[in-house]
Design a protein that fits this description.
This protein has about 750 residues and is of the alpha/beta class. It has three domains: about 220 residues, no CATH class; about 220 residues, no CATH class; about 170 residues, no CATH class. The protein is built from 25 helices and 26 strands. Helix 3 packs across helix 4 and helix 15 packs across helix 16. The longest helix is centred in the middle third of the chain and has 22 residues. It is elongated. It comes from Blautia wexlerae. This is Putative component of 'biosynthetic module' domain-containing protein. It holds the Pfam family YceG_bac.
Length: about 750
């Protein structure tokens, strides 16, 4: 017989007999659970299922049919002797070899002898013997000829074992069989049968917890079956695996910036970051940091996609392009929909996408209460979004390249959360930004790394290149002293050092406007230069009402804002709707397939900007393209308004052109003050001009004492801040602002007061 030995770790169970540290068998009781134990049970069950015996519940007592067959073959004789048992085993279990019979016979004899010593009668011993023989034949016959072999058979017993069951399993264990008892209710019941733990050992490991509610061998079996089914779902596995966040330093944006080549050098992995940043470390510089990040990503040629507020829902056309059938199970649905993932340009990426889709959908299917229709709809959403963003994220992809997906605002629903979990396992850095702590991101993912800051900041649009970003000043956020903020980024620049600029719209308090108005841009909050591009903070506001109802002070406050680079419009409209510029008749030729035809414009004989610096011509055309792309004016892309936009921007007033020509992006910027005291709506042409000048870096103030919505009519979105400063006044006449005395200590200005028509 073989002795029971102690294991050093659970993997010892799977070592063959001749390779074990000590030649013997293992018989352990498992009374607690951990992930390691769960994996062991799964593997042990699979081994016992194939080459051993699994007992779920009790071993059934021999029924009448079993006993009748035993009586027919063996008779009901019984002798308490080794020879009798040995001879009986040769006849009853002929597949056993002599060594196995000897061990089993000796073990049965020892067990019966212990019963006799405990006071059991001869008849009781005979009944126990017949029960053992029937159990050996009907339950364990498949392993009796493997007992003591190098490849040791396994027995897995689930539940509270009885005295006679324990005896028989001990007989088999001693004859050369490994045994595991799963005791979900603990060890108390077992110790009543074997108080000294003589027949088996209790597994002692760190971190053992009670078994999960409902845990059983059936669940283990179902899990193994699911894993087998999953293998069929995956097909050829990718050679690359994600190493997500294991390499990061926990520095948030700096981890995203980290060079791909410095993240790791194991060719089996791609090294990506999956991170959510809640709140803002410094809300005064937050937007500027984001702006720098996206510029650095694009300058490093990393494929980048940025989404703000929400991921636009799939369109009906996108949904219709997903091939699908009627499914009766998740096992049908997942591989069926996975066929929509096609990336023939790179088979390895195709396998990564396929595997990741199967992974996340299987995980979703296992969630409680997840029905098939709902799961299918979520999978279709995921595939629509993947098709939408795949070309931008993985164009010409090859390992070890890592693109970047940035989502500002956080996941608002489970569809977005599922898509983020999917992207977070691809060769992508996924950055989720939740600066507003009042808006909760619903994503929960064990791979996700979180960075938390205490400051909350309401920002809804990611500050992309040339986008209209709103960044609060110190007074707006009540964070720092105004003068400290204004001068924190001071620097020295040569004249006309930069030829490209992007605009950041400042959110300000009304009282701040006069402080910021005549200040050099380099001293304004969040001014910066990144890779030859200046990020210039500008003012774009509407002032409604008259402060304290004082008309005289109202005009004085406006006069105080007029600098030598200020254009003042005294009534609406500034540009008449009937105005006809030199390029209006040709505007249709200048815009094709969503792109401005720059060469055609600049080579046209009536092109009016030949005299401007070349870089300033490009600057004007850049902002014209941006205005159309962002559809900032109503009707663009719908009724041909884009051609009106082109005609107007190619016919700028001479005074404005001169201000643009001399504009140095690091110094003071040109201004536009637009006064509308009446009930006339500003024209479409005025709206186009004002929007363009904002993109070009002008400070713009609308003064509307009536409070009427007389300036917003043609804007497609809210472009400017509105300040309500006092009571509304009507029928006011604009005085000669040149002759109004102000309290300013600045020298007098050359004021430009003009109006077409």
């Amino acid at each position: 017989m073989l002795e029971h030995k102690k294991i050093q770790n659970l993997s010892d169970y799977f070592v063959e007999l001749n390779s074990r540290r000590e030649k013997g068998v293992y018989f352990y009781r498992i009374n607690g659970y951990s992930e390691e134990v769960g994996e062991f049970i799964k593997k042990y069950y699979d081994t016992a299922r194939r080459t051993g015996v699994v007992i779920e519940g009790k071993i059934p007592n021999p029924d009448e049919g079993n006993l009748a067959y035993y009586n027919e073959i063996m008779g009901m004789d019984f002798q308490m002797s080794m020879d009798f048992i040995h001879v009986s085993l040769r006849k009853w279990l002929p597949r056993m070899n002599e060594f196995q019979r000897q061990n089993v016979a000796a073990s049965i004899y020892d067990s019966l002898d212990s019963l006799r010593k405990a006071g059991k009668t001869e008849n009781m011993l005979r009944n126990a013997y017949i029960k053992f023989m029937c159990w050996l034949y009907y339950k364990f016959e498949r392993i009796v000829n493997q007992l003591g072999e190098n490849h040791i058979p396994k027995i897995l017993y689930e539940g509270q074992i009885s005295n006679y069951e324990l005896m028989l399993i001990s007989i088999l264990s001693n004859a050369g069989c490994d045994v595991v008892l799963l005791q979900y209710a603990g060890d108390q019941g077992y110790l009543k049968t074997d108080p000294g733990s003589v027949l088996s050992d209790s597994l002692q490991m760190e971190g053992l917890q009670p078994f999960p509610q409902g845990y059983c061998v059936k669940k283990v079996r179902d899990e193994i079956q699911n894993e087998l089914n999953n293998e069929r779902l995956y097909g050829i596995r990718p050679s690359l695996t994600n190493c997500t966040n294991a390499w990061i330093k926990g520095n948030g944006l700096d981890d995203i910036r980290e060079s791909i080549l410095l993240r790791g050098n194991d060719s089996r992995f791609f090294y990506n970051c999956f991170c959510r940043i809640n709140g803002a470390e410094d809300k005064l510089t937050y937007a500027n940091e984001l702006f720098r990040l996206q510029q650095e990503l694009r300058n490093s040629k990393r494929n980048t996609v940025i989404v703000s507020k929400e991921i636009p829902r799939p369109t009906p056309q996108e949904i219709s392009e997903i091939k699908r059938s009627n499914y009766t199970s998740g096992d049908q649905m997942i591989p069926g929909l996975a066929c929509n993932i096609q990336y023939g340009a790179n088979p390895e990426l195709q396998r990564i996408l396929h595997k990741t889709f199967v992974d996340v959908m299987l995980a979703e299917s296992q969630k409680e209460g997840e029905n098939l229709n709902r799961l299918t709809n979520r999978a279709v959403y995921l595939l629509c979004w993947l098709r939408r963003y795949l070309p931008k994220l993985f164009i010409n992809w090859k390992s070890p390249e890592i693109g970047c997906f940035i989502y500002l605002g956080g996941c608002r629903n489970e569809n977005e959360a599922l898509f983020m979990s999917f992207l977070g396992r691809l060769p992508l850095d996924v950055l989720i930004l939740c600066p507003d702590l009042n808006i909760k991101c619903c994503l929960e993912d064990k791979l996700l790394y979180e960075v938390n800051y205490p400051e909350s900041l309401a920002i809804t649009e990611y500050p992309e290149e040339s986008s209209q970003v709103k960044i609060g000043t110190a007074a707006y956020h009540a964070e720092r002293e105004l003068d400290t903020l204004m001068y924190q980024d001071s620097g020295i620049y040569r004249n006309q050092q930069y030829v490209k600029a992007n605009v950041i719209n400042l959110q300000t308090m009304y009282e701040e406007i006069k402080l910021l108005w005549d200040q050099e841009l380099k001293y304004r909050p969040n001014f910066s230069t990144v890779n030859g591009v200046v990020n210039i903070p500008v003012i774009f506001s509407k002032i409604s009402g008259v402060k304290d109802g004082s008309v005289s002070q109202y005009w004085e406050s406006i006069a105080a804002l007029i600098t030598e680079d200020t254009v003042v419009v005294k009534s609406a409209p500034y540009i008449e709707p009937t105005a006809s510029g030199p390029m209006k008749a040709f505007a249709v030729e200048f815009y094709k397939n969503g792109k401005l035809q720059r060469n055609k414009i600049k080579n046209h004989p009536r092109y009016p900007y030949h005299l401007l610096r070349e870089e300033m011509q490009e600057f004007i055309l850049d902002k014209l393209q941006l205005l159309i792309e962002r559809k900032l004016i109503k009707g663009i892309g719908e009724n041909g308004t884009e051609y009106t936009v082109i005609a107007q921007i190619l016919d700028l007033p001479k005074e404005i052109l001169r201000l643009i020509q001399k504009f140095d992006f690091t110094k003071k910027n040109p201004k536009l003050i637009y006064i509308n005291t009446g009930e006339t709506m500003i024209s479409l042409q005025d709206s186009i001009l004002v929007t363009f000048l904002n993109l070009a870096g002008f400070d713009i103030l609308f003064f509307v004492p009536t409070g009427y919505q007389s300036v917003e009519n043609y804007f497609a979105e809210k472009l400017m801040e509105e300040h309500q400063i006092g009571e509304y006044k009507y029928d006011m006449q604009v005085p000669d602002l040149n002759n109004i005395s102000t309290n300013s200590t600045r020298p007098s200005w050359r004021r430009k007061l003009f109006r077409r028509g």
